[in-house]
Design brief:
The chain is an alpha+beta fold and about 220 residues long. It is built from 6 helices and 12 strands. The strands form 2 sheets. The protein has a 6-stranded antiparallel β-barrel with strand order 1-2-5-4-3-6. The protein has a 6-stranded antiparallel β-barrel with strand order 7-8-11-10-9-12. It has 3 domains: about 10-85, Elongation Factor Tu (Ef-tu), domain 3 (Beta Barrel), CATH 2.40.30.20; about 105-185, Elongation Factor Tu (Ef-tu), domain 3, CATH 2.40.30.20; about 185-215, no CATH class. The protein is about 15% helix and about 40% strand.
Length: about 220
């Protein structure tokens, strides 16, 4: 589990295809010197397992499913990637709960620069857009961000200078692909509403509204939210 608070960036030193899978070698900053083989590491928001450590070079395996679902199948030697070590139970949760299990990819449609920040518009797959809410959380290349606007299959996020300085997001251009992980809590809520057949029929679950939420115990004593 991760928080989406990127700790630093690493340089891809090599990608070796292994059939439908791959092995990557990443040069990491000194901050990650406490990592050991078997540890989890989020690479551009994708949870990978460290298989070997040689100084500042980490080797990580990438499964066929991960290559298909994320941008890791397209990274090349010399590219920089966002890195985050796994969350410890004693850590502060500065971002939001991020599993590192990427839901899909998005495409940057627009980048607008203001005085000190950037607004980035990202188009995502229609199947993921139903999870978007304004002021909700989303992980973009492993970065915990707040959705400032969502319309149809696109969302806007704001990048502050601190985020730009410690991640790769400021290097992105229109047309670039990014990894997307939807807020974990929203997916659990949907699964509860749709798949709890003993309490909610499929027909009812597809009509999530105020009356339905009150009927199944969501809301205050008088149904107030």
């Amino acid at each position: 589990m991760f928080t989406g608070i990127v700790e630093g960036t690493g340089e891809v030193r090599g990608i070796r295809p292994l059939g439908s899978e791959a092995t990557s070698i990443i040069r990491v900053p000194a901050l990650f010197s406490d990592c050991r083989p078997g540890d989890s590491l989020a690479v551009d928001g994708v949870c990978l397992t460290i298989t070997s450590v040689r100084g500042d070079l980490f080797t990580l395996d990438i499964s066929a499913e991960t290559l298909k679902r994320s941008t890791l199948g397209k990274i090349r030697q010399g590219e920089m990637v966002n890195l985050e070590r796994a969350l410890r139970l004693s850590d502060r949760l500065g971002g939001h709960l991020v599993s590192g299990h990427v839901d899909g990819t998005g495409i940057i449609q627009r980048i607008e620069k203001s005085e000190r920040s950037w607004t980035i518009q990202i188009r995502i797959d229609e199947s993921l857009s139903r999870y978007l809410i304004e002021r909700g959380s989303i992980a973009v290349d492993g970065i915990s961000l707040t959705i400032s606007k969502c319309t149809g299959d696109s969302l806007d996020v704001t990048i502050i200078p601190q985020t730009a300085s410690v991640t790769t997001i400021a290097r992105k251009r229109v047309g670039d692909m990014v990894n997307i992980e939807i807020d974990l809590i929203s997916k659990y809520i949907e699964r509860f509403l749709i798949h709890d057949g003993a309490a909610i029929s499929k027909e009812t679950s597809l009509r999530i509204n105020r009356d339905m939420l009150i009927r199944y115990g969501f809301g205050g004593r008088n149904g107030d939210f």
